[in-house]
Every structure is written in C-alpha cells, then in structure tokens.
Amino acid sequence: MITRNEKETIELGKKLGSLLEKGTTVALKGDLAGGKTTFTKGIGEALNIRQVINSPTFTILKIYHGDLPLYHIDAYRLEGNDYDLGISEYEEEGIMVVEWPEYYAQQLPEDYIEVLFTYIDDDSRQIDFICHGEKYKKIIEEMEMTC
Ligand SMILES: Nc1ncnc2c1ncn2[C@@H]1O[C@H](COP(=O)(O)OP(=O)(O)O)[C@@H](O)[C@H]1O
Ligand SMILES: [Mg+2]
C-alpha cells in the first residue's frame, strides 16, 4: 500500500487501530522517517486517545490512555539491551506498539502484526502488513492485504 502524505498514513493507522483487540502487539519496522510514529498517531485516534502522540525516542516507553491503554515503545536506544520496561504484566490489557523491534530484546509474542515502512520519496511511503502467526490473519485481510 502506498500513502501519499502524512494524513493518509494516519488514516491507515486509524483503520488498523479500529480492528485491534486488547493484548495485540504491533511491530513497526523500517526506514527512519518512514512514518512509524505518524502511523501510531492513527492507532491512537482509533483508541480515542486525546494526548498528542509523538516520537518516544528519548523516553523509550510512553503510555497513553484511551478506550484501551497504548504502550508506545521506541526500542532504538535500547540497542538490544535486555532492559525491563516493567509493563509485561499489563500488556494483555492494551495495545503494544514497538518501533525498532529489532532492538527490542524482550520476546515479542508468537502472534503479532508487523508493519513495514519504506521511504519512497519526500511525500510517499510504502506500507506493508505482515502477519506473524495465524491469529491476526483476518485483520490483515481486512486491511486488504494477504499474508
Ligand atoms: N506518506 C507519508 N507518511 C508518513 N509520513 C510522511 C509521509 N510523507 C511525509 N511524511 C513525513 O515524514 C516524517 C515521518 O516521521 P515519523 O512518523 O516520525 O517517522 P518514523 O517514526 O518512522 O521515524 C514526518 O515528518 C512526516 O510529516
Ligand atoms: Mg518514530
């Protein structure tokens, strides 16, 4: 899927967000400035989060409160260190979004949704959905993608 501007990426995030149930992990991979945080803003809109979602690069974890809690992790600065963020017991209660999951040492669940961002040009991004495990197959299909 290609988005042509920031707003379209937010809309796509909102569409995915509206399909998610608590306990879901979404891993956002891909280029710097690929749109991972922008997409998360859309997930936040779907969850009726009123706070502004911004890049958590310097804080690693931000928790937002909407219809469900959103645990927004930017693992870049964890650099693969196995640092306990202290949320494992709450994850089942909300939606966990992990930017830079390749630097997140803690185990992602067996079933999770991967979203891959590719920078095409200043305004366009390619966004692909990849399901890990069977659980979220239907959601990916509803996003009009197959896996
Ligand atoms: N189609 C698009 N989708 C998302 N962001 C876009 C798009 N076109 C331009 N942008 C810009 O690219 C940047 C993406 O930043 P961000 O979402 O923080 O990326 P990341 O979290 O992947 O580093 C923003 O400045 C945004 O305005
Ligand atoms: Mg980001």
Please report the distance between the alpha carbons of the first and last residues.
14 Å
- CATH-derived topology: Rossmann fold
Overall shape = globular
Rg value: 14 Å
What do these coordinates show?
This protein is of the alpha/beta class and 147 residues long. It has one domain: 3-Layer(aba) Sandwich (Rossmann fold), CATH 3.40.50.300. It has three helices and seven strands, in the order βαβαβββββα. The chain has helices at residues 6-19, 36-46, 137-142; strands at residues 2-3, 25-30, 61-65, 69-74, 95-99, 112-121, 124-132. A seven-stranded mixed sheet has the order 1-7-6-2-5-4-3. A hairpin with a 3-residue loop joins strand 3 (61-65) and strand 4 (69-74). Helix 1 (6-19) crosses helix 2. The longest helix is centred in the first third of the chain and has 14 residues, at 6-19. The two termini are 14 Å apart. The relative contact order is 0.23. The mean pLDDT is 93. The structure holds adenosine-5'-diphosphate and magnesium ion.
Please provide a brief summary of the model:
The protein has helices spanning 6-19, 36-46, 137-142, and strands at 2-3, 25-30, 61-65, 69-74, 95-99, 112-121, 124-132.
